[in-house]
Write a structure and sequence with these properties.
The chain has one domain: DD-peptidase/beta-lactamase superfamily (Beta-lactamase), CATH 3.40.710. The protein is 31% helix and 13% strand. The strands form three sheets. Strands 1, 2, 3, 4, 10, 11 and 12 form a seven-stranded antiparallel beta sheet that branches. It has a three-stranded antiparallel beta sheet with strand order 5-7-6. Helix 2 packs parallel to helix 5. The two termini are 28 Å apart. This is Beta-lactamase family protein.
Length: 386
């Protein structure tokens, strides 16, 4: 474990969260100015197994930020123009009136393809990457995309992955390995988890469906309530509550939600983005690229899926901290259940938190653990700069 002395209050806060098996386990990592300053873990990876240095967790939408970073590596070399239509690289995407949707639209959740529910038949249908891609090609876009964003809770990852695949001619997970894992010297960036590493994945709990209510019923009811209808369409496909625990998830490319990471790997990636693209003598992206991808693209309008305003950048969002002052240039991605990671170029800090305990006592969808840890870390970093 690693804890630089200034970050002892952050470590104390983290360890206090994981004293009982029912609290599950987690890992927390922080980089400052391109150097690791925190790398700690605590709690339980399963009922009879402690979390250890090698434990990893499925971090849900946290993976959207990793997938976006892959695309930006390709774009930086001039192979992708954010403002060209997706169909420039993926001709079949132009079907059903989608010829004018740009790469920027995809990265800012304005492609109008948020619907995962009913996209392909059967609860296991979304495990078939090629089938999903064909379905997205045939789908018309939601016209609300012309007014505001509609969070692509599950479909985002497939859209980004297929753009990368079409541009490079290489399967997305292979590009991920060469563009992120190999560059950073960190192996734990997985959508398809190597078979020999799957025993390292912490078991997630509790069930994500509302207590006492079956998933299908909950999804159907929410689909009928106009203000939250988009949540059911975007994030509640058939059988998803059971699918998140299905081992087949770790054999499928679904970068919108099935990424498995260590906090250490995520913090290093975002550590580079917080430090002008450099970490451990390695270059991930150029400073001008980081400035571009961290600039707010969508803000002030209610997202038609989430029902509240979201500040999207190019493939990321602004982190939210339990503090009066929010970071104005930070960007990253949080995931369902509480995991997340981000870079804060203003302070040179990155933070990553992965956990197998989904949410808190009220809901499994999320809680305030990361927001509180982030506030403490920012306070420490801000004091250092004074």
């Amino acid at each position: 474990m690693l804890v630089e002395s200034d970050y002892l209050p952050l470590a104390d806060q983290f360890f206090s969260m994981y004293r009982e098996p029912g609290q599950g386990g987690a890992a927390l990592a922080v980089y400052q100015d391109g150097e690791p300053v925190v790398d700690i873990w605590a709690g339980w990876a399963d009922r009879d197994k402690r979390w250890n240095r090698n434990s990893v967790a499925m971090a849900f939408s946290t993976g959207k930020g990793v997938a976006s970073t892959v695309l930006h590596r390709i774009a930086e070399r001039g192979l992708i123009d954010y403002d060209l239509p997706v169909a420039t690289y993926w001709p079949e995407f132009a079907q059903a009136g989608k010829a004018d949707i740009t790469v920027r639209d995809v990265l800012t959740h304005r492609a109008g393809l948020h619907r995962a529910k009913g996209l392909v038949p059967g609860s296991a249908g979304i495990l078939d990457y090629d089938r999903v891609i064909a379905a997205l090609e045939a789908c018309p876009a939601d016209p609300r995309r012309l007014r505001t964003s509609g969070y692509h809770a599950i479909t985002f990852g497939w859209l980004v992955a297929e753009i990368v695949h079409r541009v490079t001619g290489t399967p997305f997970i292979d590009v991920l390995r060469t563009e992120i894992a190999d560059v950073l010297g960190e192996d734990e960036f997985w959508y398809v988890v190597p078979e020999g590493r799957r025993d390292r994945i912490a078991k997630i709990f509790p069930h994500i469906n509302p207590p006492g209510i079956k998933w299908g019923i909950a999804s159907s009811v929410i689909s009928l309530v106009r203000p939250v209808r988009g949540l059911a369409e975007a994030g509640m496909p058939e059988g998803f509550d059971k699918l998140v625990r299905d081992p087949r998830v770790h054999e499928s490319v679904m970068p919108g939600w099935n990424g498995v990471f260590s906090a250490r790997a995520l913090a290093k990636m975002y550590g580079a983005l917080a430090n002008n693209g450099e970490v451990d003598g390695r270059t991930l992206l150029k400073p001008e690229t980081i400035e571009q991808i961290g600039t707010r693209q969508v803000a002030g309008h209610y997202d038609y899926v989430l029902g509240y305003p979201v500040s999207f950048t190019l493939g990321y969002h602004r982190p939210v901290l339990m503090a009066k002052s929010q970071p104005h240039k930070a960007f990253g991605h949080y995931g369902m259940g509480g995991s997340g990671a981000y870079a804060d170029p203003e302070t040179g800090m990155s933070l990553a938190f992965v956990t197998n305990r989904l949410g808190g006592s009220l809901t499994a969808l999320g809680d305030l653990r990361l927001a509180r840890l982030g506030a403490t870390a920012r306070a420490i970093t801000t004091r250092q700069d004074q």
